[in-house]
């Protein structure tokens, strides 16, 4: 029986690791944040009252074995001059339409998964859209993922609130079951405060993560995020993650040891990144985790990214070990 891996996050980080992982003999599940309120996803969650579909769309494409022409259509984003449909991705509209047709986002994702022939499962962390809340290190309160990201301020902690006043926040039971039955939980890569932590702070998820017997692995970011994690070491990322988990839960940290060339990154193009994450292996060990330091760096498009194949190979070897 294939090992069960659950990946937790959102944004553009998870697909980089998922694409090579689905080629392995594993049972892969992605749990995705529902607090995104920017761009096409934000507009659809406001006008159609559904969970933001963008991260789900990207992960489904990463898991898909369908024809590339179909995937290109699914990912196609209308041009800004197309006033009514400006910036909407076709896949986002399909997720919204199927959610309305079926009355259930899980059923919508299941149907699309069949069309796209995906290898694995994609579960939103909750079935209703949530609002991400944050408190900065100087005590200021910020509301909404887009506003938090745009503020570029150092953050202390985050939590979620319902998008409808008085509504009870409940974790998606499919996500909880996946965590409890997993052999390995993988966090990231991705924005710590706006992609990873918004999943963990959903009531029911943290409790499942504390209860699961699975090995828990954190993929440390290669670059810090402007304002939010400026000058953070890999160990400081880990400490914030453990603090939101409620205890020292992470067994291993995958951290990049290769140097990003000083003149390679285009900081205007990649406006949310700041500096390279520095390694602090002793502090990671004090957090109770094993340090797994390798060359994970992939330089492309004037940016610094994880080499998905190298990370996936290592995750698979940790499973076997």
From TrEMBL:
<dbReference type="InterPro" id="IPR002882">
    <property type="entry name" value="CofD"/>
</dbReference>
<keyword id="KW-0963">Cytoplasm</keyword>
<protein>
    <recommendedName>
        <fullName>Putative gluconeogenesis factor</fullName>
    </recommendedName>
</protein>
<dbReference type="InterPro" id="IPR038136">
    <property type="entry name" value="CofD-like_dom_sf"/>
</dbReference>
<dbReference type="InterPro" id="IPR010119">
    <property type="entry name" value="Gluconeogen_factor"/>
</dbReference>
<comment type="similarity">
    <text>Belongs to the gluconeogenesis factor family.</text>
</comment>
<dbReference type="Pfam" id="PF01933">
    <property type="entry name" value="CofD"/>
</dbReference>
<comment type="function">
    <text>Required for morphogenesis under gluconeogenic growth conditions.</text>
</comment>
